[in-house]
Amino acid sequence: MILPIIAYGDPVLRKKAKEIPQDYPKLKELIENMWETMYGAYGVGLAAPQVGLPIRLFMIDTSPFAEDEDLSEAERKELEGLKKVFINPTILEETGDEWAFSEGCLSIPDIREDVFRKPDIAIEYYDEDFNKHTENYTGLAARVIQHEYDHIEGILFTDKLSSLKKRLIKGKLANISKGKINVDYRMRFPAVKKAR
């Protein structure tokens, strides 16, 4: 079932998400619905807060990036098969010199901006069967994970922009939160308060 994606301005996107137990109700069903939602919106990542749940769960499938001709063969190969669910993750380390890449977000449609992130990460997490993993990622794979991880920390990519950039996109963000945007996937917008 395709779930509505929560739009910028909803308080759930600002909450630090809570860890979930192994017996979290209907977890497999939630994961299936989140995959369907992500693919339906042509995303490469989706975090539980983006479907209204403040829990530490996100998923990524970086295969669309594998078609980028500018990447090395090794980078394309890593991105091609990278489809994972991350439950209760912790980024242990972020290293290297920050680099810019144009990021977007399903909760913030029609806005793309350069965001600086470190290129290498080490992350500990549980998969959908609650097996524990500690892995290292680099480049675009690391970036997608960092972006989704930020969601479960209550951070959006727009928070990482300069104050000038934030001022330039302020009107667009306000329109998104009011539902004044056309998207080809289901979204839920924060309740718009009516003037009395």
TrEMBL record:
InterPro entries: Peptide_deformylase, Peptide_deformylase_sf. Signal peptide: none annotated. It comes from the Bacteria. It is an enzyme of class 3 (hydrolase). Its cofactor is Fe(2+). Binds 1 Fe(2+) ion. The active site is at residue 148. The keyword Lipid metabolism does not apply. Keywords: Hydrolase, Iron, Metal-binding, Protein biosynthesis. It catalyses: N-terminal N-formyl-L-methionyl-[peptide] + H2O = N-terminal L-methionyl-[peptide] + formate. Pfam families: Pep_deformylase. One of its GO terms (molecular function) is metal ion binding. SUPFAM superfamilies: Peptide deformylase. The keyword RNA-binding does not apply. Its EC number is 3.5.1.88. Belongs to the polypeptide deformylase family. HAMAP family: Pep_deformylase. PANTHER family: PEPTIDE DEFORMYLASE. Removes the formyl group from the N-terminal Met of newly synthesized proteins. Requires at least a dipeptide for an efficient rate of reaction. N-terminal L-methionine is a prerequisite for activity but the enzyme has broad specificity at other positions. This is Peptide deformylase.
